[in-house]
Design a protein that fits this description.
binds magnesium ion; 324 residues; binds threonylcarbamoyladenylate; four-stranded parallel beta sheet; eleven-stranded mixed beta sheet
Length: 324
């Protein structure tokens, strides 16, 4: 039996299995088994009312999990699945409250990673899987990150290498009259409009259903993280260093050297930036620096998902910061 089949057997027995997707690593459990789903919340330290995304082997499974499926969902699934788009639909009877957080909707997606698809086909059902990190922490994009977060809490970690996309899926709510993006991701509003003819509303967090992706403090390093615009970056770096503080920097343009500086040059392209983002933050978080300065990227649509994660990382950072 290979690892994927062992993982499918473990899932059927109610155990947790971490697996790669194209976005981030997921912490998977049999979505039809309440005891297994409960283990996800325990392992993550996640509040019980936060709903989980159910991962499906292919679109043919959709009708087992959702009802009143609109045409737009069918079109979007055809265009983007497997891929980094989660659809929020009205839930079918029998979908566990533990999975939906008691709401009448369910989040569904078909992930694109070959190992994830192999696992889903071997399991032949829905796998509930949040990102495989402790609640509020940076999502894992390698198997080693998962081990750092959850070692001892999972039966198996499938290693599929670094995740191609690097940030979580776009979440699109199709359960209400107007489609709304609850969490921006690699699939943009413009791409959704191209397929459906409707431009979804974007990220109005106050009206969204409970979505932990819409909480301010999320995806956060322990070191305080500050978003700094290009024009004041040099001055802020100099000020910190004059104070004798060691700082980490994630910025565009050539690296600066200095004994008190840990520097990472950011990719100019939003997809490449997203791909590296969480690994970079994790690495910079482990350098014992006083602060992580991140140069603010452009505000354009193609940077929307990256900016969303950076703002949340800044808001949630510094919870266990390095003390003088
Ligand atoms: O890329 C991803 O989506 C990754 C990989 C593993 O698939 N998963 C992921 O899961 O990011 P998680 O649990 O970290 O984030 C899922 C988000 C949460 O913010 C949750 O509240 C929201 O999806 N969600 C799930 N079901 C929902 C529903 N019925 N209504 C509104 N939000 C929902
Ligand atoms: Mg998460």
């Amino acid at each position: 039996m290979n690892d994927v089949h062992r993982a499918a057997v473990a899932l059927r027995a109610g155990a947790l299995v971490a697996f790669p997707t194209e976005t981030v690593y997921g912490l998977g459990a049999d979505a039809s088994n309440p005891a297994a789903v409960a283990k996800i919340f325990a392992a993550k330290g996640r509040p019980a009312d936060h709903p989980l995304i159910v991962h499906l082997p292919d679109v043919s499974h959709l009708s087992a999990w959702a009802i009143n499926i609109p045409d737009t969902a069918v079109k979007l699934a055809a265009a983007f699945w497997p891929g980094p788009l989660t659809l929020i639909l009205q839930r079918a009877k029998g979908v566990l409250d533990a999975v939906t957080g008691g709401q009448n909707t369910v989040g569904l997606r078909v992930p694109k990673h070959p190992l994830a698809l192999e696992l889903l086909h071997a399991f032949d059902g829905g796998i509930a899987a949040p990102s495989a990190n402790r609640f509020g922490r940076i999502s894992p994009t390698t198997a080693a990150h998962v081990a750092e977060e959850l070692s001892g809490q999972v039966a198996m970690i499938l290693d599929g290498g670094p995740c191609a996309v690097g940030i979580e899926s776009t979440i699109l709510d199709l359960s209400r009259s107007v489609p709304e993006i609850l969490r921006p991701g690699a699939i943009t509003a413009a791409e959704i409009e191209r397929v459906t003819g409707i431009l979804p509303r974007s990220a109005i967090t106050h009206s969204a259903p409970r979505v932990s992706g819409s909480m301010e403090a999320h995806y956060a390093p322990r070191t305080p993280l500050r978003l700094v615009s290009a024009d004041v970056l040099d001055a802020q770096i100099s000020a910190a260093i004059t104070d004798g503080q060691k700082i980490a920097v994630l910025a565009f343009g050539p690296a600066q050297a200095g004994s008190l500086l840990v520097w990472r040059t950011a990719a100019d392209d939003p997809a490449a930036y997203a791909h590296e983002l969480y690994a970079s933050l994790r690495e910079l978080d482990n350098t014992g620096c006083r602060c992580i300065f991140v140069q603010r990227p452009d505000t354009g649509e193609s940077w929307r998902a990256v900016n969303d994660r950076l703002q949340r990382a800044a808001a949630g950072s510094g919870q266990h910061s390095f003390q003088a």
